[in-house]
User: Fold these one by one.
Assistant:
Number 1:
Amino acid sequence: MERPAIKTHNLTKRFGDFTAAKDLSFEVAKGEIFGFLGANGAGKTTAMRMLCGLSIPSSGEANVAGFDVYRQTENIKRNIGYMSQKFSLYEDLTITENIEFFGGIYGLSNKEIRDRGSALINELGLEKEKKKLVGSLPLGWKQKIAFSVAVLHDPSIVFLDEPTGGVDPVTRRQFWDLIYDASDRGITVFVTTHYMDEAEYCNRISMMVDGEIKALDSPSELKKKFGVESMDDVFFHLARGAKRSDN
Amino acid sequence: MTQFFSFIRKEFYHVFRDSKTLLMLFGLPIAQILLFGFALSNEIKDSRIVISDLSRDEGSRKVIEKLSASEHFIVTRSDLSPREIEAAFKKGDIKLAVLFPARFGEDLQHLGSASIQVIGDASDPNTSNTLITYLTGIVQDFQSQNRRSPGSAPLINVETRMLYNPELKGSTNYVPGVLALVLMLVCVLMTSVSIVREKEMGTMEVLLVSPLNPVLLVISKAVPYFALSLVNLAVILILSSTLLDMPLHGSLVLLVALSSLFILTCLAVGLLISNSTGSQQMAMLISLMGMLIPTMLFTGFMFPLENMPWALRAISNIIPSKWYYIIVKSIMIKGLGFSAIWKESLILFIMMLALMAISFKRFKVRLT
């Protein structure tokens, strides 16, 4: 069997007395779309930051793209893509300049940047807009470009931290088409969200409540298990006991 | 290297697309030089003075001619009564009144000495003092020209001698100060704001997740502002030598080299500030309150350090621009070489190293 893209065992992060993420153990298969769900403050972002090498875990083990999160963060960084909750392109640069910049810091050659950049622009149908400043584009477009830029260097895993915040369901659906394309190319997708319609799009999801994983399965299995109709109900069922609120 | 160049190109895009940044970068030094050079100069020109000449002889006529020829004074030669003079002062029409007693010329010729009474408006003591200094200078000049034999005693025994700046030109003092101020402002403010902006916009996270080495990140942030500061240095030097007749007696190479050292010190301060704060406003506030004001107060170009209590003088020692100001003055005005300012340079160098070390260390800490 192929090695999992992400494998964690009892991964824990404490900030003083506060345990932001507790004993996270899960595996994500290569090419899988893995959803990380939870209310605000449940510990999703903390977990993701540990996996990206932005934050050192307090205890536990984690292996990302075959590399250890304690010792091999540099290798991890070379093999992952990342798109954050806050918008992650430069608004005062054009689309082309953003592509050149991010291609550059990921060490792509000029030819690779040109080829992949024009492929990206064609795919998104942005030929006319490529010389426009990113700041002048609608939010839905920016997010699609940001995603495409995050996978420009062909990472083995892409981490998406609430990538579709603030856009309507139709635009979210279009965004997910891009995610499916990436997944088809063999890129593992790790996505956090609190939109339950998005949860349905994932292959498997984990539900986080108060820093712990309370459930982990495919959306249909989860619904069966809890005997409910929608992911909303699954979430409600699990989250009503939560002590940490969104403050 | 691709990483590095991509980053630097991006930084230049940021700078050249933001009109506010551009204005600050290039408008500020020009405005400061012009303001300090002309508008805020402490030189006083075209002051109205009134002369009351009771002697009306050759001696007084000659002195009055010399006064009229000076660019500092506009002489109104009206023989006002003391009461009228007082009224003119009260209205603010005149700054000085000069009274020649009767028999001024005669006394000068026969007794070898004579006196002039000068009345100043002490409600503005600084101006009056300056004007009286100008006047005394002119009178002395007159005496030395009219001394009949080389051996005879001087008529009035006042000796004033201004080193390096005999005309008391203000700009020679201000240019080094403005140089320190502008470089400080550009480097500290721009670097700290540009890093904090990335944090605020969320792009810093993306950069930290990327394989870009954090040290390289910091260096790529600093390089564009270092380059722009050198451009600023050139602009200020060119403006001050063409418009303000600022001399450069010392070595230009030495000046540029030590200015680079100061720029690096400022960049380190900017990095340090950006590491300690999360918002652009905060970074701006710390830069302004923490750097700009101490630079104005403790550099010595606005308020003489010699007059400060020892506690404030001690504080002034930790302000990098104080040392830079001494260096620039020594090179530009006094024309001194490195041997005369190695101590100041060494202090700046140590400050730069310490600040760089701290800011790099703190930047690393933020990643874990």
Number 2:
Amino acid sequence: MEGAQVVVVGAGIVGAAVARTLAATGFRVTVLDRGASAGGTSSGGEGNLLVSDKAPGPELDLAVLSGRRWRELAAELPAELGPDFPDVEFEAKGGLVVATTGAGADALRAFAGRQRGAGVDARELTAAEAAALEPDLTPRVTAAVLYPEDAQIQPAVATEALLASARRHGARVRQGVTVLGGVVSRGRIVGVRTSAGHLGAEHVVVAAGPWSAGVADRFGVRLPVLPRRGTVLVTTRMPHRIRHKVYDADYVGAVESAAAALQTSSVVESTAAGTVLIGSSRERRGFDERIEAAVVGELAAKAMVLFPFLADVPVMRAYGGFRPYVPDHLPVIGPDPRLPGLWHATGHEGAGIGLATGTAELIGALMAGTEPAIPAAPFAVTRASLEEVTTG
Amino acid sequence: MTGVDVLVIGAGPAGLAAARAARTAGARVVLLDASDVLGGQYWRHPLTGARDADVRALQHQWPRFVALRAALTDDPDCEVVTGAQVWAVDRRDDAPPVVHVLTGPADGGDRPRRVLAPRAVVLATGAHERTLPFPGWDLPGVHTAGAAQAMAKGEHLAVGGRVLVAGTGPFLLPVAAGLLHVGATVVGVVEAGSLRRMARGWLAPPYRTRPAVLAAKSAELGGYVRALAAARVPYRTGAAVLAAHGDSRVTSVTVSAIDEDWTPRPGTGRRVAVDAVCVSHAFVPRTEIAVSAGCALTADGSVRVDATQRTSVPGVYAAGEITGIGGADLALAEGEVAGRAAAGRATAGGNVAGGDGGAAEVRRLRNFADRMHRAHGIRPGWRSWVEDDTVVCRCEEVTAGRVRAAQAATGTRGLRSLKLSSRAGLGICQGRVCGRNLEELLPEVPLDAGRTANRPIVVPVRLGEIATPLAPPPATPPDPPVAPSVEREASP
């Protein structure tokens, strides 16, 4: 199969990582995006590379694999792309999850215990130890767990770096080209129809994030990916006072929830530039881009619970993005048996930056016919938990 | 006051005229302005005691302002709120947005909040200046012409002793005249437009501009020209400031002849000693609130309106510079049309009189404004003024070279990605100063052009000031209730 033509739909972080892996393996890769590179979800979030919010199971396995690859890439990409390429700002800063209520403390300790059982480095801290790590943290801490494996990256630059690396391995990246549908012969894909003409392809990988269901529909298959809205606040620049990614323990519950109504939980961190990013809200309401004052106000209030000094810090920007949400909270990765030649690499919800590298490795192994580093079956589009939404 | 019929945001000429017209039509009005005084940039003046001599020299149509101000501030059914900063708006379906306001001095701790759910809104938020970058433009002593004018009008101070005024457009003339009045020596006015372009714009057929309009404009500009002539200020066309020089602040500038496309003519540069330079190349509509409210924009980034100043959003009207740069007379005419139309919607007819309500006047003045754009519009040759080490984003100190290198390295055709990889446009001004310049510096039009206009947080606000979620007040009939207006997707 090597040397085969592959079209990757989507020039976000997942498409970029998949394109790089496949191109390096010898596939002839073309990345198509109807818009610009890193123009959707990949530039709408904080750049989280997290294990702290994942319960033991396939997603945690994928996160651990991805984290390893990201650490390697953080060294390899700058060496490969040279000093003139913008910095991907990889920081292995660690995550600090704190609870501020008694109930929250119990839940956090239990969750961290399960994670430790699965091999995650989750260190319970005393309030004094937490205060030593984050001097401006609220004194109302009832429990704190440090996750040294959590890291951060500038997601748009990381996407561009993966695309640039893919190009060096022979991939083509075409922006402003819309995929209109598949060309199918004898029951399998032989090409795609695009706004810029016909393109031969033996494989098509749908990596269009929250827009993946629409792309899959053009190939005649149902894919249960829905947009889940998020909003991030950005403060003005200031001297660094927040050293880790700091979450309140509600975050884990919000990530795992399926509710459509607005939920917020605090995620606060500094960027390399000196701004502070404040997330995160979760809300399912289609591709509605408007940002409401109530959401902004709730994010601000919850961030101030963690870091009271933020009350006097100006917020200068709010931006929204859409996470690709799948009802059973697992990404969809691998071939689609309903249309041979069609593949999916999507549905990572808010974790696409972190999970992109492992996703690419899974796709690369499956397409090359080799054994992946972790089992791929839990991510299959044919899994039982998606049966109701992929058939019928 | 229990309900708001018409909320007017911005109290420059357009907003004042809109508020007055809405009141005349019988609507209850709230007029907001972020400044401490009414009048906007056009009628900017000190908080207390504008002297007659200064008013005569620095202000135009002052009696009209005084009359508008008096009519509104003396009117119990018009609530005028200065120091009122709109920081966010929430879109509603088929109704004007809910408007979130902080009042009081920005550095004054916890500002009181207000949330307004009006029946109609008139946006009259004006414009800010666009300055093209050139080597040295970030030196102390280099000002926007608007900032110099604001200092002259608001504080009666000059930005320097030996000042050059450069850029393009009729605005350069009052700026130079204002500098003279507050005691500066104006060493020259340098207009980038060529005489030929200016003649084509001002005079070419179809000659639809009413002679009275041209005459009025000429009288206003003629006054400035006479002031400049009396002070022997040289006025030069087809030339531009291509560089500012100095160590800790500007001490001289290079003025060069440029062609019709604004490409410098080689060998024509000469140094002029100055201690300040004022530049103005264009005005950009301030569309933050309009964009957040969902108003459609035109290709050039103005708010799109119909003949009654209606935007694409039900109940939202726009007037003045945000609908296209056109000056104070056009703003006054548009404001009047918008105020009447907004009142008509808000009060289901009200006392709106017949006739065309000033729309014809708007058309005539708009035609004149279009001529000005043809005469003075920015030309693409400016990009050759910019060196690789010229700063294009001052907030984040990003050079043109860094932007170009990031674009070349990533190959992105997206402005969003390029901003994040170069940091241009990510600073405190949020691209207000540099956004258009960045877009035009790129080798091809970005696929996400125009997204720099999207700023859901209108101005920086302290987290503590906006933190407690406030429930919007119940809307007054006939509007739908506020709370359930956002349709959330049902769970699958």
